[in-house]
Amino acid sequence: MAALGIAMGGGNWFSALALGVTLLKCLLIPTYHSTDFEVHRNWLAITHSLPVSQWYYEATSEWTLDYPPFFAWFEYALSHVAKYFDQEMLNVRNLNYSSSRTLLFQRFSVIFTDALFVYAVHECCKCIDGKKAGKELTEKPKFILSVLLLWNFGLLIVDHIHFQYNGFLFGLMLLSIARLFQKRHMEGAFLFAVLLHFKHIYLYVAPAYGVYLLRSYCFTANKPDGSIRWNSFSFVRVISLGLIVFLVSALSLGPFLALNQLPQVLSRLFPFKRGLCHAYWAPNFWALYNALDKVLSIIGLELKLLDPNKIPKASMTSGLVQQFQHTVLPSVTPLATLICTLIAMLPSIFCLWFKPQGPRGFLRCLILCALSSFLFGWHVHEKAILLAVLPMSLLSVGKAGDASIFLILTTTGHYSLFPLLFTAPELPTKILLMLLFTTYSISSLKTLFRKEKPLFNWLETFYLLGLGPLEVFCEFVFPFTSWKLKYPFIPLLLTSVYCAAGITYAWFKLYVSVLSDPPSSKTKKQ
Amino acid sequence: MEKWHLMTIVVLIGLTVRWTVSLNSYSGAGKPPMFGDYEAQRHWQEITFNLPIKQWYFNSSDNNLQYWGLDYPPLTAYHSLLCAYVAKFINPDWIALHTSRGYESQAHKLFMRTTVLIADLLIYIPAVVLYCCCLKEISTKKKVANALCILLYPGLILIDYGHFQYNSVSLGFALWGVLGVSCDWDLLGSLAFCLAINYKQMELYHSLPFFCFLLGKCFKKGLKGKGFVLLIKLACTVVASFILCWLPFCTEREQTLQVLRRLFPVDRGLFEDKVANIWCSFSIFLKIKEILPHHFQIIIRYCYQENKCFIFIRFFSFCFTFLSLLPACVKLTLQPSSKGFRFTLVSCALSFFLFSFQVHEKSILLVSLPVCLVLSEIPFMSTWFLLVSTFSMLPLLLKDELLMPLVVTTIAFFIACATSFSIFEKTSEEELQLKSFSLSVRKYLPCFTFLSRIIQYLFLISVITMVLLTLITVTLDPPQKLPDLFSVLVCFVSCLHFLFFLVYFNIIIMWDSKSGRNQKKIN
């Protein structure tokens, strides 16, 4: 891909990059797809064959509709194309139906909707002014940024192998960020409101949007020292922002409010019955917490401090159960995770309010919100790391410090996605793609910041290199050892604990850099 | 190399594309009783593992030669044996004698695909990378771009990873040979090329340029002094490497003869299936398969037995081949140069493909390899040729259900070439290396100035034709009376292209040194 653009002059390197990755996506069509494929097929069937009033009640399949209404409408729109491919996939009772035409349609629907993502990346590249670098095309921040976003490993495997529609959703998010950078705040707010009604996971970063818009858009002026000037508050702006959010929400939830189904919709959207951790532990703080609990309980058993009969069986046999019962440390409730998340987010929000640094500050706060909720949230999916990785790409081409955080976060975050693809034919694919992306991101950012201090210190280098042996152990050595039957959860446990350390470290480092950054008077006041 | 990371990325892209293509179907998947090349390779593992080496090439109750009998040289057999040992370690059922016939499973497919990837990774890809690094007079980035284009060449990827074969091994060895010979490591180069021939006898298409180039080198050094020493050394290397490969078969005369008989079956037809060479395309009009033998039968009835008429056609095709490659080879012997060598490789392989006896459609890969090597010199024509060569295998690939990867990789290859060489800006006579040719034509025809424009139009027409034909073949059903209509059309169109390219490459070779002299004069 890098070489693709080499001899090209100015303009069409971007389209070559986009086209190249699109072709790669087409090649990935015959790869393994997860149950999410059936989930979306089922939603196609539900939205196509049932009236709106039934959408959030239908439960023939176990994969009930649990995304906000806009996504349901999106599936509804898709289903009108789908009927020309294969009518059978639109039947609610056709569980696990996957003809080759269904496969083609679903895969291509992801590839086509990614056009929005490509457009958003294009817009982002226009408004990001990275470090000024050499004349060569491959060393320009814009080129590097577009490769980092378009060829993002996580997005490729989650969307085009595992199967989901994150591409256009992240497209909406990046587009709204780009609009904020371009000072088109209303558009940005509108896009984000729409995005929230497509997939509510983006609620995690909503605080950053709310505070930023309130602080930097609704207050039109600052005092000379950068603190807030209370009398510059603009009611018109607040009201228009509120109106936008209200209208979008009304359009989305209104019909269900009218049908008196709002509680049902909300209960589908926020299922708190699930466990603290997803089946495979996402590499977050709770993975470390669980691991510590296990270690403590083993130590306790060895030292006879614990009574073996009182220990819940599940926690000792496998880390794969949904409900994880802690033996030594106190168990965690949803409320506790919510409080932890809020506490972890607060400093960044404060920073955004008291030390406004323009859109870059907003972007940092957004990433911190995403990371904090990833680290401390309830039932977090490992895929949610993309919420931090993609916006972080925008920062990475700007400053060497950010680039180093980005590389640690991305490499560990992407590696933690490996267990998503566990089938043998996908093993080379994921390793090759990961190597491709990691080699490119590290080498290109190193070239970009070659005049500054090295991106990694020895510890970070050591940690990142450790991922290699870890992968070799988990995928190539462990299956041939006798532990495979006794402790099948060890590779997953190792992966998530190892990656959790890296992600927590990146989060911490980013926080330190945000908090210690002096309020620069150079950034333009809003 | 300072851009090693770019090269790494390029290799990784090549590997990724290869592996993703390999997820698709293979030839003869689920099609008993004969299956396809995939089963042939598996069967060879079965044979080589279970039978003693003396029986590999002989028909017996355990080795039915009618069912994918071994018909490749010993090195292929050794490779199969090696794979068989690994297969035995993983799952003995895969290579069990008799019972494993037509064995198909996901795990086995994965295993077979992995063997191809590993062979490719060990032999072909390093050769490509090294070759691009050794290219002279171009920037590092161009070298990387060149490597990307060569690694993305769809024909080889689709045949090796889709259809299923180990062409990357023989082509990789040949490439090592080219590399060695052009870097003046003549002995290593000839050793590598001998290995290539001993892996797949089709590599003989490339043998004449190798021979002429090395002979020319010896002449250049003086046959009485250093040249003679080099000649002896080369001869020894070749003989030694051949003996080494054939050692188990050299002990008895009958063994050697039987292997040779298996490698060069004289009793097969003029061409197999639909091939884009002269004979097959010609047969559309003449029905060569029926009419020619018939005529010859009348003529030679009194001289030969009926079935020996093949010898005549054989002779005929031999003459054509010989005549078409003679000029280039003579020129190479007299003026050995690395550049001339590569172009002669192209034209010789193309002559063989077009005129020789018993050609497979996959043999076009043997022409494509040297064309890949001249990609950086004449990007426009090479890209065009490589596209046509991929197109010429369309019927075969459609049979294997490889339409999707075919379209995707072809577009990717085209984009890669177009962006890294900006081919559309390189259509002037100089860029096409036709300057001296058109100058000499202009001496007689002063108005001959439209050459590059004609070639541009031809390219446009050819691309449109190929796209249309692909669309028609995929979407429409052929008329019932002519079930092969579309594939024959594909072959015919490709054959016309190849003829055109043969002329073009020969022109480049013949007018090459003149341009050198002209430049000297100008200087």
Strand content of chain A: under 5%
Oligomeric state as shown: heterodimer
Q: Level of helix content of chain A?
A: 55-70%
Alpha carbon gap, first and last residue of chain B: 33 Å
Largest interface: A-B, 33 and 38 residues
Strand-residue proportion of chain B: under 5%
The major beta sheet of chain A can be summarized as:
none
* Principal-axis shape of chain A: globular
Radius of gyration of chain B: 23 Å
Classification by helices and strands of chain A: mainly alpha
Q: Shape of chain B, please?
A: globular
How much helicity do the residues of chain B have? over 70%
Concise synopsis of the structure shown:
With 526 residues, chain A is mostly helical. Chain A has helices at residues 13-27, 35-49, 69-85, 100-127, 141-150, 153-163, 166-181, 185-198, 206-218, 235-258, 262-269, 285-302, 313-317, 334-354, 358-376, 386-396, 400-415, 426-448, 458-477, 483-486, 490-516.
Task: Describe the protein.
The complex is a heterodimer of chains A (526) and B (523). Chain A is mainly alpha-helical and 526 residues long. Chain A contains 21 helices and no strands. Chain B is mainly alpha-helical and 523 residues long. Chain B is 71% helix and 0% strand. Chain B has helices at residues 4-22, 37-50, 74-90, 106-134, 140-151, 154-164, 167-182, 186-199, 207-221, 226-250, 253-263, 278-286, 288-300, 309-334, 338-355, 364-373, 379-392, 394-399, 403-421, 435-444, 451-475, 485-510, 512-522. The interface between A and B is large, with 33 and 38 residues.
Question: Secondary-structure blueprint of this entry?
Answer:
The complex is a heterodimer of chains A (526) and B (523).
Chain A: H1 13-27, H2 35-49, H3 69-85, H4 100-127, H5 141-150, H6 153-163, H7 166-181, H8 185-198, H9 206-218, H10 235-258, H11 262-269, H12 285-302, H13 313-317, H14 334-354, H15 358-376, H16 386-396, H17 400-415, H18 426-448, H19 458-477, H20 483-486, H21 490-516
Helix pairs in contact in A: 1-4, 1-5, 2-3, 4-5, 4-7, 7-8, 8-10, 9-15, 12-21, 14-15, 15-16, 15-21, 16-17, 17-18, 17-21, 19-21
Chain B: H1 4-22, H2 37-50, H3 74-90, H4 106-134, H5 140-151, H6 154-164, H7 167-182, H8 186-199, H9 207-221, H10 226-250, H11 253-263, H12 278-286, H13 288-300, H14 309-334, H15 338-355, H16 364-373, H17 379-392, H18 394-399, H19 403-421, H20 435-444, H21 451-475, H22 485-510, H23 512-522
Family (chain A): Belongs to the ALG6/ALG8 glucosyltransferase family.
InterPro entries (chain A): Glyco_trans_ALG6/ALG8 (IPR004856)
Transmembrane segments (chain A): 12-33, 104-122, 143-158, 188-214, 234-259, 335-355, 361-378, 385-411, 461-483, 489-508
